[in-house]
């Protein structure tokens, strides 16, 4: 899979997506992630990427023409274009599972007051929110969506780890997990997990 992320703040992505599991997935060639600065596609010498909203109001709106030209350069027939927006469909595990099967994702991170609505209407295939709150920009949401999707790509983490994970089935949360020591400050691990009785452990895990 390839993921292209368009942002006004590429430096925000330095680190998080290059470390740990997502970093290793890139090293193994299971995913290729590229970060693009939207400003590179600004048309004027001032590198203008935003403008005041028609009708008045606070803040600046990212321009549809800049975003369109930027994306046209790399999209192909298999690309799925996703706009990160607080008004979008709330992101969840089934959406991540579906998106992890795509060949090419393009993520657009908005900023300031938001993005010209024609991006929703004519460019994006999906509009995704990571929750019912407002962040300063779409950079953290793009990282959240990327991280969630990448760990589901076959080969990135062990199949076994994904099998009984929280949200892998509707209404399902993973059972509580413990490790050594068996007792710490009087806080004990549930007896059944130390019993070696696999049927009982399985039953306890299902209940919990
Ligand atoms: C300050 S927000 C704009 C908020 C917008 N004026 C509104 O009321 O919905 C700037 C950018 O952050 C991103 N953003 C903010 N909250 C988000 C969320 N919950 N999920 C996804 N993206 C979000 C979007 O890309 C948005 O264009």
From TrEMBL:
Domain tRNA methyltransferase TRMD/TRM10-type: 1-207
Pfam families for this protein: tRNA_m1G_MT
EC number: 2.1.1.228
Keyword tRNA processing: yes
Biological role stated in the UniProt entry: Specifically methylates guanosine-37 in various tRNAs.
NCBIfam families: PRK00026.1, trmD
Name by which UniProt lists this protein: tRNA (guanine-N(1)-)-methyltransferase
